[in-house]
């Protein structure tokens, strides 16, 4: 590739703002088209960000300057839009989750493989300096052999602040499918594939009330468990416990702890691109009267902090260099398989083995600078 990668965005909703801002700052990609079912919305975004072309999704797919489509549509049509992009000969970056069922998502990956194009899937927070630096430290052995993990995301629920929260409590969402991709993608990136899950879920309220915005006071149904607790068994022998809840009075987000044979590490919120990384060593011998306070050793983070769109940039450079990109469709599918298996386990009370797997997730190349020009 002797020029910046041409990017077309399909879906001009709220999240497109972040993508357009970040992609516009990377010299190695160029946003050339924006499309939406409401073309006037695409036109407004294109005008705001200096994008030369706008129109319908079909206009983006038919644009010869588009090499890669960024799929920012609603989860229910992620696979359909991605398949249309592959059929048009485009690479695809899709927002999470990559799909909502196994068969359709496998078919998408097979189609892309046959067409010789790539699929990338959010979240790309695992490409941020927080998790990249933590992964390097773990690989360097600062906490010894990883043994088990703990994660937690707990909140009163998005109905506390979202003016249209019903979709977050509908089939295909809930805390498991809405927030799970961040936590499970990060853990699979650090520790490798998950081999099995056992989960329990609850739905304490069958209806909830919108608390803010023009529809405040209206009720809506809760279709899926609003609290899910998951036990994971990793193929590498580790195991983990994970809480995902929209029912907690205690607001606590982004808890990720890796416990190893020589120490415990706390990692950044997997929904963020940066954050604190620190670890403690074992206490050693504890005698009567000794204090149990442990010294936290901070780990310096390396790399520039950007945001959503970093995975698109990594794909552009990986395509040019003919190397694997980090946040692959296969990783997205494995995480989807884990979450759907946890959903099935919560519904049935049974343990589920995970049929899919994924190759080791690579680190970004050393010295990866989002703001450098390496193409064209």
From TrEMBL:
Residues 6-119 form the Gfo/Idh/MocA-like oxidoreductase N-terminal domain. SUPFAM superfamilies: Glyceraldehyde-3-phosphate dehydrogenase-like, C-terminal domain, NAD(P)-binding Rossmann-fold domains. InterPro entries: Gfo/Idh/MocA-like_OxRdtase_N, Gfo/Idh/MocA_oxidrdct_glycsds, GFO_IDH_MocA-like_dom, NAD(P)-bd_dom_sf. Residues 131-265 form the GFO/IDH/MocA-like oxidoreductase domain. It comes from the Bacteria. PANTHER family: BCDNA.GH03377. This is Oxidoreductase. It comes from Microbacterium dextranolyticum.
